[in-house]
Design a protein that fits this description.
The structure is a homodimer of 323-residue chains.
Chain A (H helix, E strand, L loop, with lengths): L1 E4 L8 E4 L9 E10 L2 H7 L15 E6 L2 E5 L2 E2 L13 E2 L11 E5 L3 E3 L6 H5 L2 H14 L7 E4 L5 H13 L2 E6 L2 H9 L4 E4 L5 H9 L2 E6 L3 H4 L6 E9 L12 H6 L3 E4 L5 H13 L6 E6 L3 H10 L5 E5 L4
Parallel strand pairs in A: 10-11, 10-13, 11-12, 13-14, 14-15, 16-17
Antiparallel strand pairs in A: 1-2, 3-4, 3-8, 3-17, 4-5, 5-9, 6-7
Helix pairs in contact in A: 3-4, 3-9
Chain lengths: 323, 323
């Protein structure tokens, strides 16, 4: 089989011919049809991820067939029994286990679900990591309700665009922030009410003046802009953190947090229940993921370059070639 | 009747003879037997509180009699119907409404509860503001469970000492921080397992090495030490903020918050349900509040001086003289 192999840090991925893996007990073999990239895949090539092993096949998002059954893979392994946190053994396929940038993958049977019927292979491949992360952040942690007003910061990345789609589907009023005006325009085309460019020092005041106050924020950035968010929140609001691309938060007011009785809630990936609920939600509301780019597995390094630049709006998907 | 009146900022309280108030519809008159001070009373004399009006009678904690019924007063007015947040009309007796440093007070009947029978007047007067604040922070917001390990920062203040007592009563393992070693010793005498002095730059590491990690933190300080708390938390832990005496939080890591799936939860005072539940808890576990000082109402300015210095461990209580 063909797979994209990473032999060490800072190296391009290398298309390699490997033997098809052998499934162990309680595992199945999936003939992959499509995969998708995540920021995680970029961090792994830069060595900024714990527990790296080489050679390795990256890729955490995958869809394919088992015989004639069309399936989607939950990329989380060994979450454990507690809904509020994962076990110390929790990990995501694609490192250290071989991932989805490959024609075949072996995977525990319990990680296999039916592919949503309204999605093609590329669309379905966009779902797993970012779909479950957005779902857990918004619903399991953030307790999103249809009448809530939601702010999604840094629109464009996978989790943020799913949060936008889920919120719009649910009938929420959704606003966005970005450092790129054209991403705000794209978000509005996908149902956002509006947005502000956070390059302006006055973005929080501008947002309040335009949009009013929010019940729910979905943030993957952190940084000093996070400290401005409490001022745009309604009392009882929830601010969910699923990432920290802009680093440490300075200048956070405890007074705003306790007086408004805000919840600041960390969220990472999702439990098996979250994954199942995410698929149910996607099926019920016939959610169509936003696809930014599609590459063949043979063009994987071009795809990784787009990922590194972070200019996508939605997911970067990979077609896996037939035999 | 005699009452302690505040005629303006930075002035001492003035014992004044006033007519007994008249109860309006749905109000009752309480003949007060004891009151207690809160940091709020100090901030009011310094003008650091919104909506100040003069002249005014401070005091938010009060117990007394209605005929022969021994009662305790819920100091929160017009919380509203939502358990997760108070209404815009919410306020606490003692500003602008006349408070408990007085022989008589008029109060809505719905704010009246039976005084816990196992407490004397002074002990019962210590309960209302700090008891309900600690209860909501720990239970309603922080979801405290008997098997949790809890850290109470800045032990000595009213809310912190109630959190200690509630946790010890429930069988929790409770640790404390303070800038004063003798307050840590006092906390241990009241059932804490141990504590660290946060004057040391290494307090968080020292605490982890001694105590392990925590499921729940009750913090009234904020400031830069708050940013060290995530490293002493277990995954799925809750960090409740009920105050911010040390100001803005710098250097907070979003990675620690999302990876450990922490909850940072603001909490202020409590709803009528919280007040009722706090009294039930105090009765069930026969909690005895920690009393730091007792003054007569005639010595109110000496009491205010102790409050201003912040050297108390537990509550500063006020005996209200008879006619």
């Amino acid at each position: 089989m063909i797979a994209a192999m990473l032999r060490g840090l800072e190296l391009p991925l290398e298309l390699t011919d490997l033997p098809v893996p052998l499934a162990n007990k309680n595992e199945v073999l999936v003939r992959l049809k499509a995969a998708a990239l995540n920021k995680r895949d970029y961090w792994i090539t830069k060595g900024k991820y714990p527990g790296l092993t080489f050679p390795s096949i990256p890729g955490s998002d995958g869809v394919g067939i088992i015989g004639s059954r069309e399936v989607i893979i939950n990329p989380g392994l060994d979450w454990g029994n507690r809904p509020d946190q994962f076990s110390p053994e929790f990990r995501i396929i694609g490192m250290p286990e071989f991932g989805t940038l490959s024609q075949w993958i072996k995977i525990p049977l319990t990680n296999i679900y039916d592919k949503p019927a309204h999605l093609n292979w590329i669309e379905a491949a966009a779902l797993p990591v970012c779909g479950v992360t957005a779902y857990r952040a918004m619903f399991t942690r953030g307790r999103a309700r249809p009448m809530d007003k939601m702010l999604v910061t840094g629109i464009g990345g996978g989790v943020a665009t799913f949060a936008l789609l889920f919120g719009v589907a649910l009938g929420m009023e959704v606003w966005v922030t970005s450092s790129a005006d054209h991403k705000i325009d794209l978000a509005v085309q996908h149902g956002a009410k509006g947005g502000v460019n956070y390059s302006s020092a006055e973005w929080a005041k501008d947002l309040s003046a335009t949009a009013g106050r929010f019940d729910l924020v979905i943030d993957g950035a952190g940084g000093n802009d996070f400290a401005k968010l409490p001022q745009v929140m309604n009392a009882g609001g929830r601010m969910v953190i699923y990432g920290g691309t802009r680093g440490e938060i300075d200048g956070l007011s405890p007074q705003r947090i306790f007086w408004k009785q805000l919840d600041v809630l960390g969220s990472t990936m999702g439990s098996p229940e979250d994954f199942k609920s995410m698929l149910d939600f996607v099926n019920q509301y016939r959610i169509k993921p936003i696809i930014s780019h599609v590459f063949s597995l043979r063009e994987i390094n071009a795809a990784m370059t787009v990922l590194a630049k972070g200019e996508q709006f939605g997911k970067i998907c990979i077609e896996i070639p037939g035999d």
